[in-house]
Amino acid sequence: MALLADDRLFPTEARSRAVARALYETVQSLPIVSPHGHTDPRWFAENRHFPDPAHLIVVPDHYIFRMLVSQGVKLAELGVPSVDGSPVETDGRVIWRRFAENYHLFRGTPTRLWLDDAFQNLFGINERLSAGNADRAYDRIAECLAQEDFRPRALFERFGVEVIATTEGALDDLAYHRAIKESGWSGRVITTYRPDAVVDPDFPGFAGNLVRLGELTGCDTGTFAGYLDAHRARRSFFREHGATATDHGHPTARTADLSAAEAAALYDRVRTGQSSPDERELFRALMLTEMAKLSVEDGMVMQIHAGSFRNHSVPVAAAFGRDKGFDIPQPTNYVDALKPMLDVVGMEPGLTIILFTLDETVYGRELAPLAGVYPALRLGPPWWFFDSYEGMKRFREQVTETAGFYNTVGFNDDTRAFCSIPARHDVARRVDCGYLAELVTTGRLDEDEAFEVAHDLTYRLAKEAYRL
């Protein structure tokens, strides 16, 4: 018995479902463009077999372990490495059994849909995972992972990935990207410039990171002018390794535009650790505007991922580090917050700033109207907690009437979970086709237009927005 229904996520009304099916058939097999994510370039550089099923699917995926933790399972029991090297479970089969016996927790979630898709379409498993079949599923996946056509490069090609962008910090040497390029492999894996560690004064080791930035670039990061030159140098280095975009993960969307003297004085305070919390937030705000100015200079697309209270649990962050499932959405203002930056660069026709949010209340009220008028702005797809059937549908319903389709940028999967990439893109294609079908059957879109829009949302918009 199949795990997945053929018409999953399509409308239930017969005529709309028929149109959705027809649309989907034209985009189902289009190449995957993955312009933003967090897969590990080392996989593609070294092309080694993936580890056991647990360390491929469970251990690195915060979507999975945050749900298990919410029901009392400990991160150490799931094999998540500790900061200080304290013992954690390392037996993949034990981790997998714990995951399988709790698989019911994922009922109704997008994670369940992604997992079932991978189990069925990648590993040929057609029975729902449970405690009773955990070992059988584990053995089947392990058997697959030992085969040559399950190495990272082979899966990249099997998934139909045309291009995938990873995300590296400003201080990364990009050695794995260099190795990919020198290997002669034809797969296109590019990097993205993520400068949070040298932009956010609250980032651990910020002062030392600035010193290292200066060492890497030969620029004087003791001055604000030298610091900006160091960013220019690193951005150029990243572009040499394929980067077309930058990415900025800020707690708020606040921007600021300061005079040269004000910016230099503020930088001196944050650099030397003499700044207040308000000044550190002002510096982050300033740097969003400065990064937008640099994008006008060098043509890199700018992504702003705002609105996450990151590492909400201090004890978990101390024991297991950053990005362990304790990032929580919070309200985010965009109208006032972005105005200083938009006053400077918002009308630049050659600039693309892609906005993401974890605050759905702003879609219709703030983000769609902003993107619907400023040439520099585009709306990123539903992100993180809203990368789901309901989240995608709400997004289209709330932004299309004001921003249209062509101020959005298609889909990106934003994932570390490599095996879920085809499933995530398939969900987006199905949801968009269902939405377009309902526009057709309610007389709001001609059917020939719907086929064109479906192709654009699946493929063209992402390529154009990210300059791929």
Automatic annotation (TrEMBL):
It is an enzyme of class 5 (isomerase). Gene3D superfamilies: Metal-dependent hydrolases, uronate isomerase, domain 2, chain A. It catalyses: aldehydo-D-galacturonate = keto-D-tagaturonate; D-glucuronate = D-fructuronate. Keywords: Isomerase. Pathway: Carbohydrate metabolism; pentose and glucuronate interconversion. Pfam families: UxaC. GO terms for molecular function: glucuronate isomerase activity. Its EC number is 5.3.1.12. InterPro entries: Metal_Hydrolase (IPR032466), Uronate_isomerase (IPR003766). It comes from the Bacteria. GO terms for biological process: D-galacturonate catabolic process; D-glucuronate catabolic process. Belongs to the metallo-dependent hydrolases superfamily. Uronate isomerase family. This is Uronate isomerase.
